[in-house]
Design a protein that fits this description.
The chain is of the alpha+beta class. It has a domain of 122 residues: Aminopeptidase (3-Layer(aba) Sandwich), CATH 3.40.630.30. Helices cover 29% and strands 26% of the residues. It contains five helices and eight strands. Strands 1-2-3-4-5-6-8-7 form an eight-stranded mixed beta sheet. The longest helix has 15 residues.
């Protein structure tokens, strides 16, 4: 299992880093990063998803610090810092059958299309390979054409609706939301 690195994690000091560009660094998040992670997720969610999520399902803020800390018990968050400011976030959860679930890939709206999402995704795919995962899956709203396009440009393919992963969480999620959830996968 991939180490958890938020407040409840035994690995708070872990700092996996790579240089993304200039003074940018991708690293595993620590407990102090929680508020900045929440800010990035909520800013991007408001800017991009408000227009496509039905008003009865859209909420603002999308996540709070408790949500991120709860998620960090099962998934590892990574952040991209530029000049000591967190500008992007991604999470990875190792599941059964050597599958990694990628989630919470968000970049501040003002910094979109500058390679931050690509740096985060590449880093997490590298971590997944090191951890022995054989593939990654991600889900998004099919109306989020920018997200679908991003993942496809990076080698992800839509799954067939009848695909069974053999992981109860992934299979249930895909089956539960066939109209509002697009599942994509990539072999590592």
């Amino acid at each position: 299992m991939i180490a958890l690195v938020m407040e409840e994690s035994p690995n708070l000091r872990r700092r996996d880093t790579i240089e993304a560009a200039g003074r940018s660094v991708v690293r595993a998040a620590c407990s102090d990063d929680g508020p900045a992670i929440v800010d990035v997720i909520n800013a991007a969610n408001k800017a991009f998803y408000r227009a496509i999520v039905p008003s009865d399902r859209y909420r603002e803020p999308f996540l709070d610090l408790r949500d991120v800390r709860a998620e960090s018990r099962r998934r590892t968050f990574y952040v991209l810092e530029e000049n000591d400011k967190i500008v992007g976030v991604i999470a990875l959860e190792a599941r059964l059958r050597a599958i990694g679930v990628i989630g919470r890939l968000y970049v501040l709206p003002s910094l979109q299309r500058k390679g931050i999402g690509t740096a985060l995704l590449s880093h997490v795919e590298g971590v997944a390979k090191q951890e022995g995962l054989r593939e990654t899956v991600v889900w998004t709203d099919p109306k989020a054409i920018w997200a679908v396009s991003f993942y496809k440009r990076h080698g992800y393919h839509e799954i067939e609706r009848t695909t069974i992963f053999g992981d109860p969480y992934i299979d249930a999620r895909a089956e539960q939301h066939p109209q509002t959830l697009l599942v994509l996968r990539k072999s590592l």
